[in-house]
Amino acid sequence: MNRLHHSSGQAPWRPAIGLAVSMLVICGGFYAAIITGLGGMLFPTQATGSLVMVEGKAMGSALISQPFTSTVYFHGRPSSADNDPMATGGSNLAPSNPELRDRVAQQSAALASTYQLEPEQLPVDLLASSGSGVDPHISPAAAALQVERVAQARGISTEQVSQLVAQYNESAQWGIFGQPRVNVLLLNLALDKNYPL
Amino acid sequence: MEVLLIFTLAVLLAWPLGRYMTGIFSAGSHWSDKVFLPIENGIFKLLGINPRHGMTWKSYGIAFLLSNLVLGIIAYLLLQFQHILPLNPNDIEALDWDLALHTAVSFLTNTNQQHYSGQAQLSYLSQGFVILTLQFVTPAMALAVCVAVLRGMLGGRNATTAKEGEERNLGNYYQDTVRAVLRLMLPLAAIVALALTSQGVPSSYQASPTVDVVEQQQTLSEQTIPLGPVAAMVSIKQLGTNGGGWFGPNSSNPLENPTPVSNAIQTIALVLVPMAVVFMAGGLLRRQKFTLLSLAVMGLLSLAFIGAAVYSEQQPNAAFAGLAQEAGNMEGKEVRLGTDLSALWATFTTQTSNGSVNAMHDSLNPIAGLVTRSGMLINGIWGGIGCGFVNFLVYVWLAVFIAGLMIGRTPEIFGRKLEKRELSWLGVLLVLPSAVILTFTAITVAFPALTGNSNPGLHGVAQVFYEYTSAFANNGSGFEGLGDDTTWWNLSCVVVLILGRYVPLVIPLLIAGSLAKKRQVPTSAGTLPLYNVTFAVTLITVILIINFLSFLPSMVLGPIGEALEISQQAAVVLAQ
Asked: Which stretches are transmembrane (chain A) (predicted)?
């Protein structure tokens, strides 16, 4: 006869328990510890939250948005999580939800009056809340919109601000992946450094 | 462009990976034995098994169910008592029993539906040890069953020596599962985790740093940047069609998915193994043409859905009409990714039963909402690791049966006849999804106190339908606006999760076991040819019609109704 194993023969519990235990040790224990340690050794900055250091002091994470409301700074996207990285999340409002339309109408009116524009000229990303609530970027159009306001508030020329924005304009990564974007925190820190208040 | 590039890269990487998988699941030696055989033999000694002892379909199925039961009990106990167990530096409290049960079952069934909220409710032990392990083991278990089904379709490993009607050897469940973890999932996960860390995914056991924000606000004066062994978990979350992320909003969170390159890596990782299974199947069946057929059918459906979703998200969100520039729907999306990459991910994650997200599905435009639901209902375009291809085989069997009826011949596949016994079991599989999903949706919608919706009207119905569809398809993505941590949601989802995982894996194993025993009929002019356009079209039609008939009414109540509602609102706005 062939060596076919019928389950009636021996206690089937031992391999089932053994599998669970050995996998917990190998995957949950060894793998997680080794890979996490190795990642930290190879990429120490990235592995610990990509902190932005200015003169030895951490100013935030390059990956996490911060709230900016003053006219001397560029503003980021609306956040459904108040820019708190411990409570991230989106609005979860459907396009058909009247609550979403009300929120957007309010923001749109406010922005349109600030920048003296028709609502139809406002970049979408300044009105739409992000998925994470801590999106660190805005679109180049959203940055361009704010240049004049920031320049006026800081008493510098729009060219100076535009130049800085151009410098922080990230194009597609590796030439192909992703959208052009501007990191708001890094741009604002550069403003403070080059043109201190 | 980017979308097609990522799709093509995924297929090109899946090809060699599929060949490698064919090697490790075939009898005989393989070059990877040198590295892995000693470790495996150690594990088998601990398990007290001889991996060379084959199993019948029945003992294979029992081993599968039993190992799931044991793993589930251990996981439940570890989650339930996380507050008194070690590795809980943030003093996280106990989970309610129903939430602990739902979480254990959800990860055990490779679903990763989350009714808890991310890092706030789980200790490091729960997240980094229990859940991480389940994310490795559960795809491996389903892959093992898939491999056994494929072996059965050729008559088992003892096909040449066994007599007609004699039970067949479908391989050893424990050997297959352990190999899938050690030789496939672990090495892939290690590579992807390191690549993700290079892009900025945290990889650290240090305490989370707190920084003062640059412009102090009344609402927020400091930020805590959460760390943890995030990269290690995110990589297997993507690779293992798991989907449960470290952070609440999953891969839309810039710490979990920092750059467009990390997004490309994660998108490829999401479909890589499900695609590789398609290449593996042709190898194990010794019929490369079967891979071509599957690839053509799945690829066509996949690309059509991707196209629809990308188009959908390039359209403006209806709530923004007249209030902003006419541009794509950015509500719930990240600037670095934009609408196209979010739509691609949304399509893949629902086709593969992964369920991770890089944009909020609640805020998708209605057509993309329809695409995501259809992907989950079909559940066999790529599909979850192992179970997706098994579902696809079920569609193939049905198409063979229907095509056989049309030309008046006994339906057969690879020379083995599909007869009454097999067909009645296929009937069960056919009815089960709509019976389960629609019954639970109806009950929940009928009692508004149960639902906990964040959205009124038709979208509310859509949310409930989505939650149960996601549970049954073992997908795990959700409309996050649903207030789903209630006893009703937890327990009803546990039932749906279990039915959606085990029935669609065990019945095909039974069918394969039954097919394996049959006499092989030699190919003749009367054999139904599988490898041509006619059969491919029949197969696509079968896939679409079955799901269309089962779910059209609920689609009309959900996303289709919503689309009509929105276009009506838009017309009113324009008229003003």
From this structure: 20-43
